[in-house]
Amino acid sequence: MSLAADPSGAYQAFYRRSIDDPEGFWAEQAQLIDWQQPFTQVVDTSRPPFAKWFVGGQTNLCHNAVDRHAAAHPDRAALIWVSTEVDQTRQWSFAELQREVEAMAAILRAQGIGQGDRVLIYCPMVPEAVFGMLACARLGAIHSVVFGGFASHSLAGRIDDCAPKLILSCDAGSRAGKVQAYQPLLEEALRLCAHQVPKLLWIDRGLVPIEWRTDRDLDYARERERVAGERVPCVWLESNAVSYTLYTSGTTGRPKGVQRDVGGYAVALAASMKHIFDGRPGETYFSTSDIGWVVGHSYIVYGPLIAGMATLMVEGLPTRPDPGIWWRLVEQYKVSVMFSAPTAVRVLRKADPKYLHEADLSSLRALFLAGEPLDEPTARWIRDELGRPVIDNYWQTETGWPILTLARGVAPMQERLGSPGVPMYGYRCVLVDPETGAELQEPGQKGVLAIDHPLPPGCLQTVWGDDERFVKTYWSSIPGPQRYSTFDVALRDADGYTFILGRSDDVINVAGHRLGTREIEESISSHPGVAEVAVVGRADELKGQVAVAFVVPKDSAALEGEGAQVLQQGVMHCVQSQLGAVARPAQVITVAALPKTRSGKLLRRAIQAICESREPGDLSTIEDPAALMALAERLRQTG
Ligand code: ATP
Ligand code: MG
């Protein structure tokens, strides 16, 4: 079958093999990494919904990310760190990175940290955080990176959940030139949590003074001198040992502690670097994410390094010192693959496009975007300005690597605006009716995107410390055969492209019509006066639910008065003409900003709660509470 998404049919064949012969397929992919001892079974599916990959195999993430490249290409660039906040640039070759990681591992080992022990990393975007992650991987310790922007309450919950023996932290981060001290937040978190953390290891950047507690605190620079020259070998781990835990973004409620393995993750990342990102050894990969998120884990730290690429890590904002900074970095470090998020592109879109054209971007082959819906206007803008493929990719903290995208490394594939692409190899994706569990086969049918057991390598093993939550949350929500629910609603078109329409709880039912809030948002964002939009459903006596749209105007003059009225009417008209009258929002409200999570996702559930006069629920991951308060105020004003 020839599909527009896969004109040669080559990807289809690749995908089919991964589904029909998973053992053969993944055994082959497993050759992309080093094994100290070969596995005896490719996958153990005897206890669904759990799965074990590469059973009996012994390997190590740090060996695959660092040591093997340090042995083969010691002088090749491995980690490039640029801080536009403190005006510093540093670079490590693979051999130098190995020395740093061994030093960090020696420090941890001296504190009695070994296999299975937890280390929490609460740091800004500093290279020592990467050393810390890799040092844990080296020792078989389990890291739990907590996004450095989280405050005490969120941090305390994560400390209690993973019960670390040691916390690696920093005197301060810096954002937009403002120093943000970490110690007060961490001390407050330690007061709030029940778990006693024996040791804190501080990286002192000299930004703010640290108050030392001698029985508990260690100074990284001092400890590093103490262990100078010590060698720390990689601990060989069974493939299914735990490598790390990481929390989901908390967009829909209490964050879930995703637990990942070692071997499956290493293989999945190595395969994705080859087949999806087409990143080649010796080149530079630039992900603009943060190490506190899954994209940072997979595609700042482990993925590029496993592939023998240099990874560019940036502390700083996309607009400082000016909106040309990322493009200059692409030029300077000859970045071949770049990975960012739609939210960042929307920020850059507000700036002058001249910045894009001032840099020589000839090294860049493609830009990947993920994390939230990529609306068509944003996608078209960046694609046209860059003149390169802009590839949406859809996945979750849970899966660790893309579920839907285009496998450029396997076959030439044509991107389609608005769709992330097609199911990636290994993912047995199905669309199901959430009420009946029936599989939806016809193009255009909307259903919940589900994945059949077993999930491919690299996906979560379970929820940390809570197998029951794993089974109940992910595998029990769809009637019929046990399937993993992504909780996202999607449809497939006749050309084979899958479109994500929104979260399953974001589907609203207006007078019997099921509408994805994403579809309405997509329509509204095509209005030239709209910078950003959020649509939520509000309970309505007559219609069951109605759509309410919150719109950030491009021009702040349209926030109030006549300008706002014109925009509101334009938006209504846009939706009515594109989607029909049922989808037309009952209300269009102009706001200056939308509430988002720290990872830049719209907090729709909080907006919806406020629309329905309910408590907004867990706000521990909110970026700017003021935006939510202002939105509530606007809502009150408009009645
Ligand atoms: P929580 O699970 O705690 O509510 P979260 O789902 O936002 O938070 P993440 O794992 O960071 O946590 O995000 C994954 C979700 O982000 C996906 O399930 C999907 O809803 C959305 N998403 C990610 N990438 C895309 C994309 N390319 N297009 C549309 N949606 C996306
Ligand atoms: Mg989620």
From TrEMBL:
Q: Does the keyword Nucleotide-binding apply?
A: yes
What is the name of this protein?
A: Propionate--CoA ligase
InterPro entries hit by this protein: ACAS_N, AMP-bd_C, AMP-bd_C_sf, AMP-dep_synth/lig_dom, ANL_N_sf, Propion_PrpE
**SUPFAM superfamilies in alphabetical order:** Acetyl-CoA synthetase-like (SSF56801)
Which UniProt keywords are present, listed alphabetically? ATP-binding, Ligase, Nucleotide-binding
The answer, when asked if Ligase is one of the entry's keywords, is yes
Q: Which residues form the AMP-dependent synthetase/ligase domain?
A: 67-454
What family does this chain come from, according to its entry? Belongs to the ATP-dependent AMP-binding enzyme family.
Q: Which GO terms describe its molecular function?
A: ATP binding; propionate-CoA ligase activity
Q: Where is the AMP-binding enzyme C-terminal domain?
A: 519-601
GO terms, biological process:
propionate catabolic process, 2-methylcitrate cycle
Q: Acetyl-coenzyme A synthetase N-terminal domain spans which residues?
A: 11-65
| Pfam families in the cross-refs | ACAS_N (PF16177), AMP-binding (PF00501), AMP-binding_C (PF13193)
